[in-house]
Amino acid sequence: MALIVQKFGGTSVGSIERIEQVADKVKKFRDAGDDLVVVLSAMSGETNRLIDLAKQVSEKPDPRELDVIVSTGEQVTIALLAMALNKRGVPAVSYTGNQVRILTDSSHNKARILQIDDHRIRADIQAGRVVVVAGFQGVDEHGNITTLGRGGSDTTGVALAAALKADECQIYTDVDGVYTTDPRVVAQARRLEKITFEEMLEMASLGSKVLQIRSVEFAGKYNVPLRVLHSFKEGPGTLITIDEEESMEQPIISGIAFNRDEAKLTIRGVPDTPGVAFKILGPISASNIEVDMIVQNVSHDNTTDFTFTVHRNEYEKALSVLENTAREIGAREATGDTKIAKVSIVGVGMRSHAGVASRMFEALAKESINIQMISTSEIKVSVVIEEKYLELAVRALHTAFELDAPARQSE
Ligand code: ADP
Ligand code: ASP
Ligand code: MG
User: Fold this and answer.
1) What average pLDDT score do residues 272-277 get?
2) Do 91 and 129 form a contact (C-beta atoms < 8 A)?
3) From residue 266, how far is each of 270, 298, 302, 352 by CA, in Å?
4) Residue 182's pLDDT is what?
5) Shortest-distance Cα residue to atom 9 of ligand 1
6) Probe residue for ligand 1, chosen from 41, 47, 209, 343 as the CB with the greatest number of ligand atoms within 8 Å
7) pTM beyond 0.85, yes or no
8) pLDDT at 248 over 80
9) 74 CB-near residues (< 8 Å, 6+ apart)
10) What ranges in 139-229 are assigned the alpha helix state H?
């Protein structure tokens, strides 16, 4: 008998029919003798609808009140699933984050889980009940409702699995596993049997939203066996593992991630003196804006051009800070561009293979795609390109690194 934490995402609980289907699935596991804790998201579209309501009242909703409203989506689905299970003769009880006591810090809208009280859940399991927990939410030490950031139900699932030392955490969603790249963008994308925590973490942080970054961090830190599966189709899904098997088949690149969430800012003609980077980025970080990629070029007239990327939501704010800096330090101009995209190749295989980056650049050059910025780490290479070439770039790289699924045999 195993203890399994199962998390179902928004589309998997997007209607009453789907919730009934989830109940059938949970019952099957229960009938087979497993103990179950089920974590749910809100119905698909619901969290956006709630945010939109808040924005109709206030352009910048108070973060505390926003958490009070957006946390309601999950409260609806957990009650419905508990009812559907009880209807099937499977004793079940639903809990909000507060009722479990998923203690978080007080950073509203992006809170971090600090501790989970497992007493209540354990007692229910002991009594033979399925426990249905609202994902995405917690409570801070002052009793305020908090939420964990978009996609945060994944993190609730993994954190509960860690706290309960569950045998497995199963993330059920609308795709049958983690693919070499978003299967909605590249039809030839292939499901991966396995991916390492390290690679999954890079994929998630570089834009693959199939798992929230923090859920992968948690799973790696507490060594939670984690699997991504399709909610309603049978199959092995994708296992996220620690082991990096060294085999001849080990691909150099495991996956391609991309995002359109960033914007680029450039300050030109900056007098090139020590401390330039600090003068430019100091005020940006003082305004609480996170910087991702950075490039600096020195030109022959003793000035430098400096380019960096920020989240697109912070573009306007960053540009006005940069314009101020340009005036103060006597730079020629501050400009920006929001129509960019970041494409990244990810794989632990890069450690043992040279020339991966140049193969990437060659594939992009063949499609005449201009690279505006580059950044590398031990297991990834990211480039910034014009947004309109994003899909072309991802497809070209997918083929260049031999990730395409074999063509289907005609039947
Ligand atoms: P849920 O509501 O179940 O949490 P999400 O929409 O958050 O589902 O995540 C699943 C989606 O992630 C898929 O529908 C897919 O389009 C997208 N996705 C992006 N990158 C990948 C990838 N590499 N593999 C699988 N899915 C991916
Ligand atoms: N409902 C939340 C969201 O849409 C959390 C989740 O689905 O994981 O972001
Ligand atoms: Mg999700």
Assistant:
1) 88
2) yes
3) 11, 13, 17, 35
4) 96
5) 210
6) 209
7) yes
8) no
9) 40, 41, 42, 96, 134, 135, 136, 137, 153
10) 153-163, 197-205, 213-221
